UniProtKB/TrEMBL annotation:
Similarity remark: Belongs to the SURF1 family.
Cellular component terms per the entry's GO annotation: plasma membrane
Keyword Transmembrane helix: yes
Residue ranges crossing the lipid bilayer per the database entry: 196-215
Alphabetic keyword roster: Cell membrane, Membrane, Transmembrane, Transmembrane helix
Record-given protein name: SURF1-like protein
Subcellular location: Cell membrane; Membrane
Membrane topology listed for this record: Multi-pass membrane protein
């Protein structure tokens, strides 16, 4: 009987822990979905004026409209687009009519278009402010000789282009040969449903194994 009681306590305790972990992930899923909906709503909002001093926390994803002129330089960030293949994000300096020097993520070009000259003239641009978190310990240093970057490192790119560390990701075309890659929530991880299924699945297996062990223990006791 002691063996059966021990198995019962151990099994119920383990089952309770696994179920609580699964329930916690369900709550996290609801929180993340609400957060993503809020971000989507912010991204799609009507463009406002560029803040005088944009803040990475306060102004992330803020929709902004600016007018001004592109500078002649641009940086190329290596990316791959589904159904298209490898290419580059074009990051260019932009001087607004109010005198701000910021960066514009103009969008995607194919590798063959790397040397193509893009329109540097005056224009109006609508997009979203963004400070992407794309740097980790495995990100290579940029190949400055070939002008190939491997992540959007806003401070480093701003230093290279002589702008403020402010990146505006264009929503619409700024050049016929550039395809916009506007800001969205697709890159924000939301794995809580998978985690919840995993924990509940483990709970089911745990309950089955506990039942089996209890049945065997009871059978031995009777024997």
């Amino acid at each position: 009987m002691r063996r059966v009681l021990f198995l019962l306590i151990f099994g119920v305790s383990g089952l309770a822990i696994l179920l609580s972990l699964g329930t916690w992930q369900v709550r996290r899923l609801a929180w993340k979905e609400a957060l993503l909906a809020e971000i989507d709503s912010r991204i799609a909002g009507a463009p406002a004026q560029l803040p005088q001093h944009p803040d990475p926390e306060r102004d992330k994803y803020l929709p902004v409209a600016v007018s001004g002129s592109f500078g002649p330089q641009e940086l190329h960030v290596l990316v791959s687009v589904k159904m298209v293949g490898p290419g580059y994000r074009v990051i260019a300096p932009f001087v607004t009519d109010t005198g701000n020097r910021i960066m514009i993520d103009r969008g995607f070009i194919t590798t063959e278009a790397k040397q193509t000259r893009r329109d540097p003239g005056p224009m109006e641009i609508a997009g979203n402010l963004h400070w992407p978190d794309e740097i980790d310990g495995y990100t290579p240093e940029p190949d400055l000789k070939s002008n190939i970057w491997f992540a959007r490192d806003v401070p480093a790119m701003a230093a290279a282009l002589g702008t403020d560390p402010v990146l505006l990701v264009a929503r619409d075309r700024t050049d016929p040969g550039v395809t916009p890659l506007p800001v969205d929530t697709a890159g924000i991880p939301n794995d809580h449903l998978q985690y919840a299924i995993t924990w509940f699945g483990l709970a089911l297996v745990w309950a089955a194994m506990t039942t089996l062990f209890l049945w065997r223990g009871r059978a031995r006791t009777k024997g």
